[in-house]
Design a protein that fits this description.
The protein is of the alpha+beta class and 157 residues long. The chain has 4 helices and 7 strands, in the order ββαααβββββα. A hairpin with a 2-residue loop joins strand 3 and strand 4.
Length: 157
């Protein structure tokens, strides 16, 4: 199944301060899929083109004093790909970090369905701190949606 966008209502318990959010959903044929495993399928090995976009992003934000490389931005702790795990339960894995311009969370949720499939939702929640955060979010939006759909498709494969 291709992913589909579903509505997000704010505030969200996973990140009550968020002022922006989106969510995409897909189905997996793995009836026992847990949230962290779904997040790992999505983010552990990103496509090469995503790495290129992230390298470009890091160069562009450096003059503004923003965190360029999330690996260097937050030390220690367990990660899924480049993202630190903030909270983790079998049904919900929350990833993300905070910066001067915005804070973000990626919430990966799984829900077992009666037909032996698992619904997998990937929600992005953002708290913008200033005009730079608003401009940044607007600038990355087309890339964000493409990356989310691509990473979520890796969960259902």
């Amino acid at each position: 199944m291709k992913s589909r966008e579903i509505p997000v209502s704010l505030p969200q318990p996973a990140f009550p301060g968020a002022d922006w959010g989106d969510c995409f959903e897909t189905l997996s044929d793995d009836p026992a899929l847990l949230a962290e495993a779904a997040a790992r399928r999505a983010f552990e090995r990103m496509p090469r083109w995503v790495g290129g976009l992230m390298a470009l992003r890091n160069l562009m934000v450096k003059p503004f004093g923003l965190k360029g490389d999330p690996d260097k931005a937050s030390q220690g702790g367990t990660r899924v790909g480049i993202f630190p795990i903030i909270r983790n339960t079998p049904e919900q894995c929350i990833l993300g970090f905070d910066d001067r311009h915005l804070d973000f969370r990626i919430v990966v949720e799984t829900q077992s369905l009666p037909d032996r499939q698992t619904a997998v939702r990937m929600m992005t929640l953002v708290k913008r701190h200033n005009m730079l955060g608003r401009v940044y979010l607007a600038a990355i939006m087309p890339f964000h949606k493409l990356i989310v759909k691509t990473t979520l498709s890796r969960v259902s494969d």
